């Protein structure tokens, strides 16, 4: 299995004169991209195999960029147009599927009771609103801001510094246009050196006025044979609670509260956020030791998620953005890829209020961080209980049944088998 990782090196060592030249190139590149975007928007049949001289020369009268760089701009413009249209089609499909599901409900439910009539009325209103939304949906043409450019080895080359001095390398950019050649000084940092030692650097670069981004490709080998599976529940009191009854990142709440006290936009706020991200990185590495497959909840719209509204106070919910659940899942998945650990997600529906012993789902089962089943009396930490439900949901689901032990015991925690 191949994975791609990237890192950014600052352009802060570049002289003022070179920065002016770089900004000029970026603006011209953005303008050229927008010319191509306007053309591709009205000619959707064009693909990358057709980016030959007639198309590449379209903006030639309005730009001084070379044919090489115009072709690079055309590829990026085509990707931007394709991405916008793909997202639009996906959104349209989602709305259409919701409308179809509502129509199916309206056909099957009969208005034979007051409750059903209320449901039908609400469905009709929702159907009308979604139909109107679908009829008004249209893709919006993208616009390149002229603040970045993605270039290949035909334009740029990373050259090692010939003299042992202040800089480790130079990004030499040529074939730009107007006789411009540009050398951007690059200083390697720890992350760059780690990736460079373990991976193969790709000859493609993303250049902005603030940084140059490098990509690396590495072969990790096949995924591990699945023997040890855990479910992970994410929370505030403990960043990660696992189905084997362990908790990681129990200091995350204090870090979040410190971040909340910092003034928005201040350096202190940014340092606090960086500290939280650093702690997330540490937990994401620590939690994968001796694991073959992990299962997490697939959550979206975290700030408005009803599950979190039920378990967290308003103040804590307002700090969700500071520690970024999306960042936590991204780091967890990236570490899984690097360590050949399989990564799976399940629906979060009722995982925090369901008893793993008798399967009773009742909101009264959970009281803060304590879980106590109202039917069988099973008691546990609420987050660990949710982690147990997450892994059980995977093992009994469509894609997890093949990992189910042959003795049919789906309870990962052995302590539950005696209850």
Describe the structure.
The structure is a single chain. The chain is α+β, with helices and mostly antiparallel strands. It has 2 domains: about 15-165, no CATH class; about 230-419. Helix content is about 40%, strand content about 20%. The chain is built from 12 helices and 15 strands. The chain has a 5-stranded mixed sheet with strand order 10-9-8-11-12, sandwiched between helices. Strands 1-7-6-2 form a 4-stranded antiparallel sheet. A hairpin with a 2-residue loop joins strand 6 (about 200-210) and strand 7 (about 210-220). It is globular and about 80 Å long. Mean pLDDT is about 85; it is low at about 300-315 and about 405-410.
Q: What multimeric state do the chains show?
A: single chain
Largest sheet features? 5 strands, mixed
What portion of residues is helical? 40-55%
Give helix and strand order, one letter per element, not per position.
Answer: EHHHHEEEEHEEEEEHHEHHHHEEEEH
**Which secondary-structure class do the elements indicate?**
alpha+beta
For the termini, the CA-CA separation is 42 Å
Query: What's the total helix number?
Result: 12
Strands side by side in the biggest sheet: 10-9-8-11-12
Instruction: Give the low-confidence spans.
Output: 301-313, 407-412
How many structural domains can be distinguished in the coordinates?
2
- Mean pLDDT across residues: 87
Proportion of strand residues: 15-25%
Give the tally of β-strands.
Answer: 15
Rounded to an integer in angstroms, the radius of gyration calculated over CA atoms is 27 Å
Overall shape: globular
């Amino acid at each position: 299995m191949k994975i791609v990782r990237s890192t950014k090196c600052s352009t802060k060592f570049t002289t003022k004169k070179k920065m002016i030249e770089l900004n000029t190139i970026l603006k011209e590149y953005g303008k050229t991209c927008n010319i191509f975007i306007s053309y591709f928007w009205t000619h959707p049949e064009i693909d990358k195999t057709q980016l030959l001289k007639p198309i590449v020369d379209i903006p030639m009268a309005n730009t001084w960029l070379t044919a090489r760089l115009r072709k690079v701009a055309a590829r990026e413009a085509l990707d931007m147009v394709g991405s916008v249209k793909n997202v639009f089609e996906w959104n349209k499909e989602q709305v259409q599927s919701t409308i179809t599901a509502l129509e199916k409900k309206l056909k099957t439910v009969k208005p034979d009771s007051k409750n059903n009539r209320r449901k039908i009325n609400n469905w009709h209103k929702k159907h009308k609103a979604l139909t109107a939304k679908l009829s008004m949906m249209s893709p919006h043409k993208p616009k390149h801001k002229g603040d970045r450019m993605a270039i290949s080895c035909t334009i740029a080359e990373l050259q090692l510094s010939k003299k042992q001095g202040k800089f480790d390398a130079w990004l030499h950019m040529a074939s730009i246009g107007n006789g411009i050649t540009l050398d951007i000084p690059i200083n390697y940092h720890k992350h760059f050196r780690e990736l460079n030692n373990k991976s193969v650097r790709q000859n493609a670069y993303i250049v902005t006025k603030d940084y140059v981004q490098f990509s690396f490709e590495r072969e990790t080998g096949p995924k591990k044979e699945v023997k040890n599976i855990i479910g992970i529940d994410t929370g505030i009191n403990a960043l990660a609670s696992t189905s084997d009854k362990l908790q990681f990142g129990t200091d995350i709440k204090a870090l979040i509260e410190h971040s909340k006290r910092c003034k928005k936009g201040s350096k202190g706020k940014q340092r606090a956020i960086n500290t939280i991200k650093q702690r997330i990185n540490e937990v994401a590495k620590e939690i994968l030791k001796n694991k073959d497959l992990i299962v997490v909840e697939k959550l979206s719209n975290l700030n408005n998620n009803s599950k979190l509204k039920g378990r967290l106070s308003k103040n804590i919910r307002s700090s969700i953005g500071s520690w970024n659940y999306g960042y936590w899942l991204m780091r967890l998945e990236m570490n899984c890829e690097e360590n050949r650990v399989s990564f799976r997600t399940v629906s979060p529906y009722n995982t925090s209020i369901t008893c793993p012993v008798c399967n009773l789902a009742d909101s009264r089962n959970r009281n803060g961080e304590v879980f106590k089943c109202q039917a069988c009396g099973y008691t546990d930490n609420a987050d660990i209980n949710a982690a147990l439900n997450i892994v059980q949901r995977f093992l009994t689901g469509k894609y997890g049944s093949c990992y189910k032990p042959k003795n049919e015991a789906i309870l990962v925690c052995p302590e539950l088998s005696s209850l």
